[in-house]
Records
---
Amino acid sequence: MSEIVHTFEGYSAAWFGPEWGPALFLTVKTLLLIVAIAIPIILCVAYLTLAERKVIGYMQVRIGPNRVGWNGLLQPFADVLKLLVKEVVVPTGANRFLFVLAPMLSLMPALAAWAVIPFAPELVLADINAGLLYLLAITSMGVYGVIIAGWAANSKYAFLGAMRSAAQIVSYEIAMGFALICVLMVSQSLNISDIVNGQGRGHFAEKGLNFLSWNWLPLFPMFLVYFIAAVAETNRAPFDVAEGESEIVAGFHVEYSGMTFALFFLAEYANMILVSTLAALMFLGGWLSPVDSTFANAVPPILWLALKVAALLFCFLWFRATFPRYRYDQIMRLGWKIFIPLTLIWVAVIGIWMQTPYNIWSGS
Amino acid sequence: MFETIVFYVFAAILLFAAARVITARNPVHAALFLVLAFFTAAAIWLLLRAEFLAIALVLVYVGAVMVLFLFVVMMLDINLDRLREGFWHHLPLGLAVAVVMLAETVFVLGGRYFGLATLPAPGDPGTAYNNTKEIGRVVYTDYIYPFELSAVLLLVAIIAAISLTLRRRTDTKAQNPAQQVAVKRQDRVRLVSMPAEKEE
């Protein structure tokens, strides 16, 4: 494989000269890799929507979609086709440019974040030193899509939804960031591959019980905070007041139709997959196998990661089917008065713990 | 060559966005152009291999500060005509500030023309260079006191901002979740046991 790549690099240098050849080669190679990552993610998004309808259907003793394809397996494509042929209505008095830009702005960060996610050892588009920082920065930009959508639509309900969403996302980002700071303190690295590899070492890992060495156990409160904050960040039930069908009809995307609406949908589900993958990488050992046995080690690493992500995504769907929506002031109280103090204290606890002889993290 | 072209593309976008921040008529557009300017500045820092500064700029300014900025600007009922009042009145002061800032920039950037000692440009640090680690090392060793002082200053600013805006209102009907959660069944429901009554 690497020989073929090198051959093409040689061709590129030969055809376009030593100045432009490598640059052009790098650009084309990166673009191809981006397509190779983005298309599976969009397919995952499509089937996550189907999984959501099926899972919630079974939880509510219904069958869910079962008409298109075998047991409804082609339902996502039918939905996409339906949305594609619908008209995109731009309301009178809306800011046309921003109205069309907003859905793209909400999808872009959700896809751009995947650049630094390692799917297996060495299987990553950009293995950068500050990977975790990059993720925090890129995911914090997703809120612009929501705010701009709410403002540009020139509608009261959309605007209310955008305001709620902006306040909520900014609040929970702080708790989320502090939870991740605990992770990077114990792994002493911002590189995501290093964070995963660091979880494969420790007292229990030597005895073959790898899953007890992962970060979820010593950082259990942070794992909970991270996952709940992740649900709030993605505007999912029970924290979906930004949409709030019963009060503000659909929140920020009430005026959107057709493909522009579908992009918001896509962004929401892509974000769900992203935060679940991050939780799996930071706290559940990423691609590492849970026990050290020949059978578990024979499973390809990417499959372990996929299983963990799928389990976390199932929780998202489960929450939506079971919990009633939080009241807005309760959401704010949970974020500011419980999560932020808890994470701040836990950062200090981890810092002190690491200075004592009971430090269980040997450092990378 | 490739890097130079990328730099000029980013620089052009940055200048355009910065110019639009002060010329855009709509305040929300101006705030969004400021976001674009921050983001492009971060990209230029990345070209200088200062990835920590670049990402911190995006994380802090684009991800948090500008969101709150937009939040406020969108809520304001801004009358553009009122804003334009007094343009000629404020022009001399504004021009004076602009000239001073321009002169300072010229002195800093063109130091060699004024006989100032200049440091040589740092060489290419290579791919193994870790900007985050370097900054962390310097900040927590050589510059620990200035760093801690600025942190304390920020803390004071936070406390001051909160105490300035904190109003204890007595007329709100806000519920206290701690009390709500503490409610027991006996406080709300009384189960009455009654013998079955016979139909007459």
---
Amino acid sequence: MFYRTSGQFKTTYESDQALFPIKQDMVLLVVILAVMYVIFPMFASEFTYKALLVPVLIYSLASLGLNILTGYAGQLSLGTAGFMGVGAYACYKITTIFPEVNIIIALFLSGFFSAAVGVAFGLPSLRIKGFYLAIATLASQFFLVWLFEKWAWLYNYNSSGAIEVRTMDIFGLVVTGPNASPMVQYYFVLGIVSVVTLAVINLTRGRYGRTWKAVRDMDIAAELVGINLMRAKLSAFAVSSYIVGIAGALMVFFWKGAAEPNLFDIPMSFQIVFIAIIGGLGSVMGNFLGAILILALPVVLSLLPELLGLSIGSATMEHVNVMVVGSLIIMFLIVEPHGLARFWALIREKLIIWPFPH
Amino acid sequence: MKHLSNFGKAVAAGAFAVAMSTAAMAADGLNFPNLTYRTGPFASTGTPIMNGQRDYMLMLNERDGGIGGMPIDYIECETGYNTNKGVECYEKTKGKALVTQPWSTGITLQVMPRTNVDRIPILAPGYGFSPMSDGDTFAWAFNPPVSYWDGAYMILDYIAGGDMSSLKGKKIVLLHLDHPFGKEPIPLLEKLAEIYDFRLVPVPVGLKEMQNQSAQWLQIRRERPDNVVMWGWGAMNAGAITEAVKTRYPMENFIGVWWSGSDADLQNVGAKAKGYKSVSFNAPGNFPVLEDIRKYVVSKGNSKIKSEAEMDTIFYQRGIIFSMILAEAAKTAQDRFGENNINAEQLRWGLENLDITASRLEELGMKDMIPPLKMTCDNHTGHTGAWMLEWNGEEFVQASDLLTPNRELIKPLELEKAADYAKNNAPWPDRGDLACN
């Protein structure tokens, strides 16, 4: 009823290949964008920005990057956090060596560094597959964190050993550092995430996306029909690491404000893999759903007892939280092993034929 | 971002409602949040400290009705030593907070620039980084009673027996966590090695190798150092001590910083670790303040300690001291401004002008528990000095007179690194309109 597709005829190839062939999808997207761009900023407190909205967006972006590699091109990677680190350190070096560079340019440039590192560590994928490749990317994870710690030039020989973010502005509007308003930072992150997401949707629908999917589904068959495996795999590594690198730079510059090397250690890689898997491999929307479940839900849960007037110790609540979120993850994976995105797809299918079951 | 499901929207909408309401719910009183880590990889070392901090505050509430008649609203926000949670907790608590206690170097670094803007003092007792002592640069940050560089100097002073020139030709290994915290003493130790002509061999222990240090101890055996100085935390301490016992390293030459002096780390090896030392600004003992805590908190079942024996540990008592420093600062501010319901800016003044004399310590029932502490505008640490404690096989006992850092030597380095920090975080605000006294 709400999702009735009858009557929406496609008369041209263009309309058939549109980004949103169904009108209702378009409406839904506009509503969501309106909520993100207009409604949220009207009500959100600093806490909401810093603890909920911005981290969810940044992790979604990182997971989106990983999803290109793992979900679309079928190359397992456990090195996401390391590549995020490359992006963050590159952005730090660019903004300290060339202080006059606009942060947006620095951000998009830093992606190229992580893309290069990603391609270098993606080379083994030409020979090894599956779990063996996961181990190779794991090596990159350990190596990169080690490098962030040992190579003092990377953090400008700071006595704290961490990278710190100075105040930067875009045309007079302060966007990084302690004086930046969380709302401005939110808009900045939201803008970048929107642009990259749009680019990724189009990329995965196009020629590259199709070659990646062919390689994922059966690489020998893909090679036989004339797909250059090396180019397909390495381009997936490059695009994936580029996005992941931007996410890393955003994390340090627009959310945390300082980062120690071990921030980019393996727990964060796993967290992003979980977001991608629970959200749904091979989907764009899934990353956002997964990030909401893994990141926002614990924050909301930890606020609940106070809201209900219960007094539960903060540490106890943390234990309860881990249990609740853990069991939710298991539940979702049992109910729908293909992730939350697939869950939504099923609901949508049901809605389209509703109220008649056939 | 094609479709954010209804579920997602519901969650987000719920989050708003919650975020809005928390701000309005805080109770009246002196709001002292603490970003604890009772969970996570470092919980075993964090919990006793947090218990000590909490019990002292609860005791003040029960015994004196708070500070100057204002009840203390002591709040814990659990981070699990996770820097992401640290941001969340800071934002959650900062609305009414008079102070922030971040409890991890990583969280401190993230929060410190924000505290200047939010105008909340940051109290990082016994950790943080050494240049924080420079109050003119870090107007809102405090790390009493001694900094890591003070600690490094005092350990060397003890090794040298008071005559630093006797270090000449010695070989000293620094076994440290390969992490900003562990690398903290290196700049000073390198400088001292140059001045006093001893050889410094840093041996890093990666975060993943904390529990298995056989490679590091093999290296130490090869190096045959005169002394091993340890900058360890959490599981690294127990790992190092067990390994030292296994490789028969002479324990009396093995000295740790104050975070490497937890009773729990040594109890496993017991008598075999006899002679191990740790520098500490709090001396163990049975102090009258403990009786009050027992009477007003523990016997009423309000404490979170597992057994009363925990009250005798160094870390629990250190927690008491940290809360005492905060409470005394609040009292100083109340006396100065003539009002009991102080705000964050007034508490900052209280911390800056804190003067805990020996007679005040006696009044508090903490005579000789820590050295007298006095902070000033250009000294946000106090630099009280510390004692060497020695493990006698069962517990830590005091093994030296008060050691004091050579401030003339350390201070220039602090000023230099503080200026570096301000440059990296430019534009860094200076003291501004904050009055000095």
---
Amino acid sequence: MSAQPVLEIKNLNVEYGLGDQAVRAVRDVNLTLHRGEVLGLAGESGSGKSTLAYGLTRLLAPPGVITGGEVIYHPGQGESYDVLGLSDKGLRDFRWAQTAIVFQGAMNSLNPVHKISTQLTDVLAAHEPKMSAHSRNARAREMLKLVGIAADRMDAYPHQLSGGMRQRVMIGMALILQPQVVIMDEPTTALDVVMQRQILGQLIELRERLGFSVIFITHDLSLLVEFSNRIAIMYGGRIVEEAQAGALYRDSLHPYSAGLLGSFPALRGPRRELTGIPGSPPDLKGMPSGCSFHPRCPKAFDPCAGNIPVLGNPDTPDGATRSVACWLHPVKEPVA
Amino acid sequence: MKYLLQRILFYVFTAWAAITINFFIPRMIPGDPVKSLLARFQGQMSSQAIDSLYVLFGLDKDASIWSQYIDYWKQLFHGDLGLSFTAFPAQVSDVISDALPWTLALVGITTIISFFLGTGLGVLAGWRRGSWVDGLLPATTFLSSVPYFWLGLLAIFLLAGPDSFFPSSGGYSPGLVPAFDQYFIPDAIQHSLLPALTILISSVSGWILSMRNMMVTVAAEDYITVAHAKGLSDRRVALSYAARNALLPNVSGFALSLGFIVGGTLLVEIVFSYPGLGFLLFRAVTAKDYPLMQGIFLVITISVLVANLIADIAYLLLDPRTRKEG
């Protein structure tokens, strides 16, 4: 895999509300998405995963505000640019053409009063105004075929499709402009397990064929272990650990990752006790001092309550390829 | 299509029920039309005239209520609503058709203007929350809570007068003959401005408020975020995604208000002595002109039903989810 970055998130901060009342939902996040990889983003509810995704595409609904940082996008050709600095026009052109999103609510992502075909082709009309109506339709048809939906469903309304079909329409829609990056925000949570597998399998296959990068957001770490190349774990608005999927699964360094991994059963291997993580996610308004995980951490010791650990390469044999923010693992070199 | 047929059948049934009730109610009121007509003439009528009145109203023969009912329907189908007392011996249908255009023109046009203006402002206010349009809301809400007639009286007091551009009452200047010519039309418009303004002021805020609230609700829907993420222009998201969905409840409200156009804004027509159906109804009620009241109620009932049917059809066209067929 080439280690060419396609999206670099640098020191991103997102807050909800203004002034003293503001809640910092994403704190100093640094994350790089490489070309062609699937980057998993996992964490409990309220850990800032979705906010991060909305933030980097500037889709935050008020009162969400990006208070700092950069999101550098590297297109295939041409200059790299900061998404956060784009003009309204530039942002509109960037959206969907470069970074498409598949949202959480499969049921509500489609406009109930327009046909599927209208909703597929209006993206094309907005981004490629020179395209003829006929070729727009042909392209939309092609995308439906790609995600395994019969072309005669073009004229269907969203309420005439099942949840799984709607989500597949959304995936087809996300790929219609052949974006470099596709963000999947819990795309399968509203679906049953069988449909989940089917859609994810299809997605991975499409990714291999079309070569886009994926940021896959979920609270289901078991899915990520299977489907992603790299995994980043978020807690309290920060990234606490980031590693290759296999490495994270085999030996996670952060106690929180270990807790997440311990909360679902392994498919193979010896039977083990499911542990889960005691306590509940932190209140973003009153974050604990130091490492925000320390009140729930089974391995907390002296420095944890006092100082915030920095995300950096740990002092392990594979330390160069992973990073962690934990006092248990002294950082050799902080991640920029 | 089947759904539509069902609705039409339902409305036909409702119309039948309404007309039947309309037939029975006056007959349950004590006294008869001739006596109430006599009261108007204060007994200054010869007994011959009274007898001929009984013949004229069809009350001379001892017809059963059933055969009266059948005759009533026969007359209805011929457009015969009976004779008016107050405008005696004019036909009720003629009296109503004289008044109807005034109401249709005044209240009809203002209702349509009010709907489009209010909905448009509502879209703006809902889409750009916190802009100047939002500042308009408390003002319009205040104006809509002011009673109609008081607003009308205030308008007359402040704006109308002997030397004012706005006439204080009537539908046209005395001396003019109603016709579609260059003298009458501008004069009629001038007379309608003040009542139209008061109707507009008191009704527009309802549209603004409901449309704005629906816009705000719809703006939080997932498909709006998706539309933004798709990089569509703000205009397209606002109109084709947000407003198109937010419009649905307002459209049925609009169709219903079309039904009430015919009933007229009674108070406005009374305050401005406007020669419309509302004013006519007011006169009919004060003069106990039962045939006229009956006729007006019939027209109002039918127009409300037709408006409901229009609302159903509009909904069918606008919201694919209501279409039953696969």
---
Amino acid sequence: MPCRFHSNIGKIKKMKPRPRLLSVSALDLGVLTQGFSGLTGQILLVRELLVAFEGNELTLGWMIAQWLAGEAVGCLTAESRWARSRNPLLLFVATTASFCLLLPLTLFAARWIRLGAGTPLGETLSPAWILGSSFLLVAPLAFLHGALFPLACHLAQRRMSESSLTVGRVYVLETAGTLLGAILGIFFLVPHWNAFSIALGLAILNGLTCLGLAFAPHARENPRRILSPAFTLATLLTSAGMLMLFLRGDEFLHRDSLQKQWGNMRLVHAQPSRHAMVCVLENQGHYTFVANNQVVAMIPIPNRAETETLAHLPLLLHPSPRRLFVAGGGWGGLIHELLSHPSIEHVDCPELDSVLLKLLTAFPSPITTAEMTDPRVRVVLMDPRRFLRLAPEPYDVILIGFEDPTTLQLNRFFTYEFFSLVRRRLRPGGIVALRMRGGLSFLPDETKDLYHTLYHTLHAVFPHVRAFPGEGRTVLLAAEMPLPDLNTDQILSRAAERHLFEGTPVPWHLEQRLHPLWHEWFHQTIADRPSRINRDFHPIAVYHTMGRWLAIHAPSAAHLWRSLNLHVPGLRIFLWGGMAGIVALAFAARRRPSAPASNTTLRTIGTTGAAAMAMDLATLLAFQSTFGYIYGWMAGLLAAFMGGAASGAEWSRRHLPSPPNRITRLVVLDASVAGMVLAFPLFLHGLSLLAPNAETLASLSFLLLAFLAGAITGAQFSMAVAVWTSPPLPSHLPRSASLYAADLFGGWITAAAVPIFLFPLLGIEQTLLALGTLKVASFVQWNHNPIQGKNIDEYRNPRP
Amino acid sequence: MNIATPDPNPRGAPTLTRRQFLQQTGALALCTGLGRFFAASVSRAAESHATPSSTASPPTFPFKPAYLALHEQGILRLRADTLWDSLAHCQLCPRQCGVNRLLGKQGFCRAPGADLIVSSALPHFGEERPLVGKGGSGTIFFSHCNLRCVFCQNWEISHLGRGTRRSISELADLMLSLQTRGCHNINLVTPTHYLPHILKALDLGVSRGLQLPIVYNTCGWEKIDLLKQLEGIVDIYLPDFKYGDGETAAKYSAGARSYPEITKAALLEMNRQVGIAQPHADGLIRRGLIIRHLIMPNLINDSIAIVEWIAAQLPLDTYLNLMSQYHPAYKAFDYPELSRRLTLKEYEKVVARARELGLRNLDLDRRWLTL
């Protein structure tokens, strides 16, 4: 939940009118810039952390939770301590300057995390590093930004007589700045500027607006002094930013931090795309292409064992392959091997990331050049899943070259939905091939779980599945027709007929995979694992890959992780039983006339905070599962939610009913939140079905959905604050700060637990339904003493 | 450590193993017509010791592994006990930590005291062709490692020690289950620091019917006195020969500067024990020395030094697998010289030198060479 908006609605009471001192337009610009800077800074930092965390979207919840907490603490601290300052302008400028200084430092530190942790390329950071680094980097920045809001409100109150209008205006302006940050961020800033350039630009912008604030005659504490401390500080900030920009300090910081990220490896190019930060490392003429710290290609020498196995196994088992489709991982060897089969007429290679393609062209090798220029190969800039759906002709073999489903973006190519699509796009007798990471020297339970899940999901779509284990990667082939049970000699004979390996021996790493006992061993290995189907909105495969990561870095946590997986039915019973119990308690609470209404409201707001965060995260994760490019759209989705929350809050504020009806409005909004959460899975599924045929409309609809989710929850919070702050309350009833804390707590708990555990284990739908049930319980508990021992009816129709 | 070869018959009285007793009793029973009752009791006795994986009737084995004789003489057990006792001051490998593993102390290899950690046991079909055959190589991977190379592809088990705790009896059962599945040998990967456990399990396994040759799949950095304990036990030595230069070894393998010198001596000893690896009529190798060398980028001179030494000191028919499949793994990206794959030119150079030197029994990536 965007706490800073809500916290300050509650602070309306504390602000008293003061004489007009400041220029209206300068402060308006200042607040606009503050909102713009906040979202832009947040997005820049979250993007850098996502890169450090290898693009694992499930860590978004943690980062958002840290931001929430930081903003809240900053907001409360500024309100309770700094508001008494005799020079709020200086404080505002100083806090702004601190924010602008801290932003590039945190960006630099974010790029240093992996080096500091000693985590080699291709391996994942430990949970301790992820949690600790995201807290240390996100929270302080969020703290400073959160502090700016009450300071801005105090500055604003000096010019307007009505404090509520002051705060409301600040809300609107900051929201506008936030939305502006989102739009400019997605379409202009991030695609064309590096993070440090943007950070320096923000410093200059903030410096100029602070100058405007400080220079206004009425702003000076002592009108006879031209240079106030605030003015001096603002000047320093602006000058420093301009000087850095003039000296190309942004470029230096960008390159230096990127190079530091790679330690001893030589970075020759780095460029953000919509989907990842793509880096190219050079070593004696060999190039490694890395996207979000995951190796996507190494040229000029491919991993021949892997590429030859993935290419030749399915093609040799197919009687006459002509049309092929390659989803990911094709460049630098795989496509080259596919093209060696003389029967191949056409290979479709859709590529999601245009930057990756551009860099493969900029740093070519003989193999990649041959692949890209072969007339049989068609390269298309499109999401492979979308392309497959729209492809006009079916295929003989479909190869999924992506590696393990370590992120939701990759998981999209290992789900029941995708495999069903593959089946529809295969010709009769067609084969699909994919590979899974895992050596033979050690197969922990987590790896077996992943193997079983992917095998089981494939088998749920294709009646015939066969495994070809080996060192490094296991290949799975699946088909509607029985896969030919060719022995080694027959396969080799077929290879000879096709003039493959002519004059050269069949490589042992390919031949040994054909051993008939491998598949039997594979079956026995995964036999005792629980069966799950991996789905777009139930990414259990991602859960297993995270379990594998935990088993390395946090074995005791991995034990709990495995236990949860083994007892999912029990977890479901526990969760639903718990929800049913809570609903029952809520009904019971209705019968107690003396129950304090303050607790009811706190529970309501707490559960709304949890529900709001769940909807926000579900939107982000569903978007990623549907489209695969959350990296570029994160700003927009977060801003849409926050904008919705602010708009809803503002709407509530402007359309306050009379006091007797406020409780009713609060309860109605609570029911609306419950309904929204319960219906949310339907909306998400609807959009995922719409997406393949109307991508732009669907992606904009995601924005709208995020906005609506924010709006309804923001409206409720605002109403709750209004109920408790107007008319005045007895001191024992909760202040807005308590409501704010309840909201924050609910959101924080959800952000920490839901994306990591509940979404992957139970799926997005079940998780939202469970939280929706919680909201129903919160709604059900209403019917008793809202204020001062009176029930709703009495409150609505007070007796004389 | 001394080789344990005590007089099995100090008082001149005849000794009888359990196998011999059963055989003689069975023969007597058959002669007296009580064979059917004897067979029933023997099968009941077998079932009480059998694990689910070892109840199947063992196939016939054309090759009698060397350790059978030592087992019958009781020498295998004696050596196992001697090595086990040496864990009190562990010096199994050249690191010579001297920690008391029997009290749970950990040495450089980080093996958890006297506990045994096994990461995997499976019929492996990807080892060298003469070890795989139709039934596969019964491979048992042991966790932990005394070398700890920065480029290790099995770093989860070698550096982190991941695996499952097993008892000696369970290890014996693993061996037997691999035999039951039709594997042609028992391939012990990174066995050095668990050698006492292995010998104990082997002794137990033999009494339960194990008859497969042992493949000692090691990093090559082995002490001579330990290898002498393996004489008559191991039929196939499968060592790596990683580095020809001590400084290189120290840089990439945690200070193992003595690697080249010790490994060379070890290879000579292994060759003395088992000789040249020659396949039988069925294509399988059941005895001999197979050397693996993984050629690494920017270390070609090192590789050439290795093949030159092999050609000079070992028979030219020595089985040498020149491996080309290096790829950066684990912490290899911290070393720019190791952060890329091997080029064809580098591979060709080493192969050409090996051929020039007259090495005849080369296992090569022939497809790559002829591309």
